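Weekly modeling sync, notes
Attendees: S.R. (lead), two postdocs, one rotation student

Agenda item 3: backlog of single-chain predictions. S.R. asked that every request posted to the team notebook include the full sequence so nobody has to chase files. The rotation student volunteered to paste the first one in as an example of the format we agreed on. Action items at the bottom.

Example entry:
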Amino acid sequence: MRERITVRVLLFDPDSRILLMKGRLPNRPLNSGVWFTVGGGADPGETLEACARREIAEESGFTEVTLGPAVWRRSAPGMLPDGERVMQIETYMVAWVPAGEPVRDNWEAHEHDLVDDMRWWTLQDLATCVERVFPERMLELLPEVAAGRYPDEVLDITVPRG
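Predicted structure, as returned to the notebook:
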């Protein structure tokens, strides 16, 4: 299984809300889906910062972005839209955008097919969410990040598969 370097973005607005997308896996198109962060795979030779900016623009339409630090790292098996199984090596970066609503203008066809919703969440609303949220430890760790308290080193949040 090949490794795929990805950047996931903890994207905040001025009200400290986080932008999440709700989507389904290609092999489970009828699944109810999960909530996850903006982000995606890095192109060959692309820095993590450039990947974060590109993915934010493509998936949310925001181009005025202030990037913060990388705070988490996670490894997990995943599936690409074409069905290829990969080991995702995810780096979670913090970023902020001005007020506004995300747009889907730059989405690829598979994103329109597999992503059902995209919206801003307050920490309070997210804490009471009954749907699945990824990464698995987001609800535990996000309040510190949202408050601007970052780990001294990038924190490995991989949950062992059992």
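Discussion: group reviewed the output briefly. The chain has a mean pLDDT of 92.
Action items: rotation student to repeat for the remaining queue; S.R. to check formatting next week.
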